[in-house]
Write a structure and sequence with these properties.
It is found in: Cell membrane. This is DMT family transporter. It is a multi-pass membrane protein. With about 300 residues, the chain is mainly alpha-helical. It has one domain. It is built from 13 helices and no strands. Helix 4 runs parallel beside helix 8 and helix 9 crosses helix 10. The longest helix is centred in the C-terminal third of the chain and has 28 residues. The chain is globular, with a radius of gyration of 19 Å. The protein starts with 11 loop residues before the first helix and ends with a helix.
């Protein structure tokens, strides 16, 4: 197998792809929340993952990417798949208890898990002092952006959703760690994502049944449109792009870019929901931009 040519910094292509992915991921929480008005959360996740798995299989057939040959990745693939499944179970269930903005800020604590744990296994991922400053600055900026929400009284059960958001963030970070430290690191991006989508597609319907969710297909065009975007753009295209970048670029630097996602979520709130553009949001945008510049600096 030809060794993967890894880069030690994010180039223009990587930065462009990351910004586009983060923009959609910021919109994705709104899509999930919207569709949950009609579609039970884990049934919605099941439809999404089934569709994304089918799209990925067709893509691999077209590209000639082998998915089922023995290459020593099964054990690591199942681990990555279970971590990925757990993350999305917590996201979908958490959004039934708390707002999309609050869950998003807790979800995007994932870079801390990557930055803290990955250098213990991959020495090349070790962050320098200036990059730690950038990471801390970016997270502080996100906290500033959501400070107004934290000052309001919480609704009943909101702490459950917040806790699920934190758990999802931890599992996302551990998924990134597992991808870089197991045999999955040598697999094609398509196969790595196939493990994640396939395991999640198997787990979510079982949990949906266990929770007594009602299944059906008689939903509105808006709900189906939401699920389609989650499936084709979110679970298929954007995650395939993320898997490819994990094989070619430093995961710690990539993870810091994900701090853009909750800020995009706030921007979509301003544009789509008419929410005010506050001073906190402006400061957060500047802080995240500065943090990204520091973390992305070459050695």
């Amino acid at each position: 197998m030809t060794p993967v040519q890894r880069k030690d910094h994010l180039d223009t292509l990587a930065i462009t792809l990351l910004v586009v992915c983060c923009a959609f991921w910021g919109f994705q929480q709104i899509l999930i929340k919207f569709a949950s008005r009609e579609i039970p959360p884990l049934w919605q996740a099941s439809i999404r993952m089934w569709g994304a798995t089918a799209l990925l299989w067709l893509w691999c057939q077209f590209r000639g990417v082998p998915l089922f040959q023995r290459d020593g990745t099964l054990k690591g693939g199942l681990l990555v798949g279970l971590l990925f499944a757990g993350e999305f179970v917590f996201i979908y269930l958490g959004l039934t208890h708390t707002s999309a903005s609050r869950l998003t800020v807790f979800l995007y604590t994932s870079p801390f898990w990557v930055a803290l744990l990955l250098p213990r296994f991959v020495h090349a991922e070790k962050l320098r002092r200036i990059q730690w400053i950038g990471l801390t600055l970016a997270f502080a900026a996100v906290a500033v952006a959501f400070s107004e929400a934290f000052l309001h009284g919480s609704s009943p059960g909101q702490w459950i959703g917040d806790t699920m958001g934190l758990a999802a963030g931890m599992l996302w970070g551990l998924t990134t760690l597992a991808i870089r430290t197991t045999r999955i690191a040598t697999a094609a991006a398509e196969k790595s994502l196939f493990y994640q989508l396939g395991v999640t597609a198997a787990v979510t319907p079982l949990l949906s049944i266990a929770l007594g969710e009602s299944w059906g297909f008689g939903y509105s065009a808006m709900a189906w449109g939401s699920v389609f975007l989650q499936t084709a753009v979110g679970a298929f295209a954007s995650y395939l792009t993320w898997m490819w970048m994990l094989r070619h670029y430093p995961a710690t630097q990539m993870s810091t870019f994900t701090f853009l996602t909750p800020l995009f979520a706030l921007i979509f709130g301003v544009v789509l929901l008419g929410e005010p553009l506050t001073l906190q949001l402006v400061l957060a945008l500047l802080g995240v931009a500065a943090g990204i510049v520091l973390v992305s600096r070459k050695g």
